[in-house]
Specification:
With about 350 residues, this protein is α+β, with helices and mostly antiparallel strands. The protein folds into two domains: about 90 residues; about 230 residues, Bira Bifunctional Protein, Domain 2 (BirA Bifunctional Protein, domain 2). It is built from twelve helices and nine strands. The strands form two sheets. A seven-stranded mixed sheet has the order 1-4-5-9-8-7-6, sandwiched between helices. Helix 2 packs antiparallel against helix 4. The radius of gyration is 44 Å and the shape is rod-shaped. It starts with a helix and ends with a helix. The model has no long low-confidence stretch (mean pLDDT about 90). Bound molecules: phenylalanine (PHE). Phenylalanine (PHE) binds next to strand 8 and strand 9.
């Protein structure tokens, strides 16, 4: 039995020295120290020994168990240390590797132009208001003096939702004049940017959806001179001091008198070039003194109050501001284009 114990000790220690994994370690533990292990098997034979030898053998067996347990613990520490090392190696982060740059977006050029315009108007005491793109025909047309039969109400120009022409996609931001008159206290100074819709084919200067910036002032003693002075100031702030404008007579049903305002061509300085189609001037907006009947329909006394209004084309303003020559670029969202601003 003495030899048996010595052999178990020797074998166990040798095998434990060469252990490589936690699984192997567990296998050896069961094999030597488990209930059905080799050491237990030897101890079971103790009963057959002479009484005098039992304590000596018992002591020896305990010593062998203690040695194997100590070696087992040591081997476990080694296996764990090696596993930790391997994990650290696998998870190592090289903090010196340059990071991946994150693409950060920015405002769309048209909104840059819009924000500039808003700043200018807010600086002059205007408020910015917002309104629905799905609009009543009553506000888009009737309340703006465009009676049934008016050419702008034609189905070839306008997106209606019903055959009675009651609900439509607004074809201009001018219904915001009516909404402002109906809801705001006088005097009023407001601008209302937003989308408008017309049945136009897409080309370099047209789109079935585009943006306008409506503006309106109603106060006592307001004249066409205020309109011209205000718009000239806005244009100089947008496009630089000394930018020249020209006001041409025009017709809108809801303003009287009406005009269109052109700015001198930024490309040729007024001589005439392809950008301005040889005119020297580029049309920027429609404007005029609010028609007395439009004021009356809103319950405003035209003998006490007067006002003017204008409607910018926002895409056009942005195109001039950033020297963009095709409207489609504004809506296509091609990153190669947008990145330039
Ligand atoms: N709503 C007009 C248009 O779409 C522009 C305009 C606005 C004209 C305000 C006069 C006053 O063409």
């Amino acid at each position: 039995m003495r030899e048996q114990l010595a052999k178990i000790r020797e074998d166990a220690l040798a095998l434990l020295s060469a252990v490589k994994s936690a699984a192997e370690l567990e296998e050896l533990r069961v094999r030597y120290l488990g209930k059905k292990g080799e050491l237990t098997a030897v101890l079971k034979q103790m009963g057959g020994l002479p009484a005098a030898e039992r304590p000596v053998m018992g002591q020896l067996a305990n010593q062998v168990r203690a040695d194997i347990e100590a070696k087992l613990a040591e081997a476990r520490r080694e296996v764990e240390a090696r596993a930790l090392e391997r994990r650290l190696e696998a998870e190592a982060v090289d903090v010196t590797v340059p990071g991946k740059a994150v693409d950060i977006g920015h405002r769309h050029p048209m909104y840059v132009a819009l924000d500039e315009m808003k700043e200018i108007f807010i600086g002059m005491g205007f408020m910015v208001v917002d309104g629905p793109e799905i609009e009543l025909g009553e506000l888009n047309f009737d309340r703006l003096n465009a009676e049934p039969g008016h050419p702008s109400r034609d189905w070839s120009d306008t997106f209606y939702f019903d055959k009675d022409e009651r609900v439509m996609l607004r074809s201009q931001t001018s219904p915001m004049q009516v909404r402002a008159m109906d809801s705001l206290p006088l005097p009023i100074r407001m601008v209302a940017p937003g989308r408008v819709y017309r049945k136009d084919e897409v080309d370099a200067t047209h789109s079935p959806m585009f943006h306008q910036v409506e503006g309106m002032v109603i106060d006592k003693g307001v004249t066409m001179a205020d309109l011209k002075g205000t718009l000239n100031t806005v244009v100089e702030q947008l496009y630089g001091k000394g930018t020249r404008t020209r006001f041409r007579p025009h017709h809108f049903p809801f303003t009287e008198p009406s005009c269109e305002m052109d700015v001198q061509c930024h490309k040729c300085g007024g001589v005439g070039c392809p950008t301005c189609k040889g005119e020297g001037w580029i049309e920027l907006l429609g404007a005029g003194m609010i028609h007395p009947h439009v004021l009356e329909m809103a319950g405003i006394d035209p003998d006490v109050w007067s006002g003017w209004a204008f409607g910018f084309g926002l895409e056009r303003t942005a195109m001039r501001r950033f020297k963009i020559d095709d409207l489609r670029l504004i809506f296509e969202n091609d990153v190669r284009f947008l990145e330039q601003f």
